[in-house]
Amino acid sequence: MRTRTAYSVAAVTSLALLSGCGAADMTKQASPFANAQGARTVTLSVQSWVGAQANVAVAQYLLEHKLGYRVDTVQVDEVPAWDALSQGRVDAILEDWGHPDQEKRYVDDKKTITRAGGLGVTGHIGWYVPTYLAKQHPDITDWKNLDKYSSLFRTAESGSKGQLMDGSPSYVTNDKALVTNLKLNYQVVFAGSEAAQITQMKQFAKEKKPFLTYWYAPQWLFKKVPMTEVELPAYKEGCDADAAKVACAYPHTPLQKYLNTDFAQKGGKAAAFLKKFTWTTDDQNEVSLMIADQKLSPADAAKKWVDSHPATWKAWLS
After folding, report:
1. Distance CA 254, CA 121 (A)
2. What is the pTM for the complete model shown?
3. What's the whole-number mean pLDDT along residues 134-149?
4. Cα separation, 75 vs 148, whole angstroms
5. Which of 77, 212, 70, 221 is nearest to 152 (CA)?
């Protein structure tokens, strides 16, 4: 799982949909349009990273401009999003990085949520250093050598230890357990959001400073700041089952979509469209880059992508 558990862009960017990460009692901020009987409305959950925003922006644009629906969006963190989806407070989650407990509870047992197929994108979380640092110290990309270089990563927040930079505290990660269980001289320090983390990484890269960070693909930033993954102990099925004992790498996770079951059954063309919505990592990164780096609004980025990729999205409407 992302175990985002990366889960796996917010407060300090100009991204219009989000106002920060930390969310969301959905009983207090549910859309009034979600699950409205007979209404041509759709409510989409928006998670706090730009790839998820890209999915929603394109889906919203096509639902509104090609299928004639009103689309409402609600920001909600990963686990609360499952509760909201089960209750019909949102109709769809378009990018889930793996929550087996929630899937068993709501999909298999309660059957209030329905699987809607893969997004077409495979996600992966890992620890990364900037490629310029990896070229200077090739052995730094083996976790066994990280302590040798811990002094390079010290910050005011990490004290005498090296800093492992994470993003939002709302992401469910294995990083603190990994540091403990691998006996590494590092301190996990949260930037506060994906956007704040990106700002820090771009500043470090501009100054060619060392940094070690939790990061994930797909992500547009790799095009701006080349990074090299640190090799952690190999992932094996079940090695992350006990969150307190994790001592292995994150898996590669095919990202999934989920619909509220009532919506899946009664949502008509909108539900059918969202089930067919699949695209590539390059597609998602193209839209993400326009939103987060070129500062287009999500709607403008979606329109630009839609205008240049008709062969892709027309298949979703058939």
Report:
1. 6
2. 0.76
3. 98
4. 41
5. 212
